Amino acid sequence: MMSWVRSGAISALVGCLVLTACSTWSADPPPPTYDIRSASIVADKVIPPVSPALIDAVSDRVNAAIAITPHNTTLPAVALTVRLTEVSKGRGFNKDRNTAKVNIDAASLDGGAVIAMASFDIATTAPDLSTADELMAEDIAARIRAIFSLNTPRLSE
Fold it and tell me: What pTM was computed for the model?
């Protein structure tokens, strides 16, 4: 009798776990998307100052992605303001760790109200500090492309 109760409890527990697992299979609604028209990259005033090469590299990559992404006029048209904060390079024991905090505002082209915001942190490892800006720029641009469903530009030859 005790083994029957124990096996029944185990069967019920397994059934609950299966139902819970199946409920997580349902697709979440897609995140809101916007018709991105432009992006401005700025840096907060920090010490040491953010490298102009990093700002330019992020700007080039994000605006190239915007240029190749088809515009959907049924979506709200927005302009992105990407703010780089807390940028640090050459940290850690090997002086190869680079980090940045990125804040993004998506402002409506009709009136300028901010209708979406995003924020994320990135961390890269660059054994050579001369490549740190390019690696950080690509990581930041890739995250922005993913968040706002932008196409990835082809590598230049």
Answer: 0.76
Q: Which helix (H) or strand (E) holds 122?
A: strand 114-125
Q: Give the total residue count for the chain.
A: 157
Cβ atoms of residues 126 and 132 within 8 Å: yes
DSSP code string of 43-77: E---SSPPPHHHHHHHHHHHHHHHHHSPP-TTSPE
Which residues, 6 or more positions from 40, have their beta carbon under 8 angstroms from its beta carbon? 59, 79, 80, 81, 82
Output the CA–CA distances (angstroms, integers) from residue 140 to 88, 115, 146, in the order listed.
14, 21, 10
Q: Which residue has the tokens 């083994």?
A: 3
The pLDDT confidence band at residue 154, using thresholds 50, 70 and 90, is confident
Please report the pLDDT score of residue 118 as a whole number: 94
R_g of the chain computed on alpha carbons: 23
Classify the phi-psi angles of 78: left when phi > 0, otherwise alpha if psi is within -120 to 50, otherwise beta.
beta
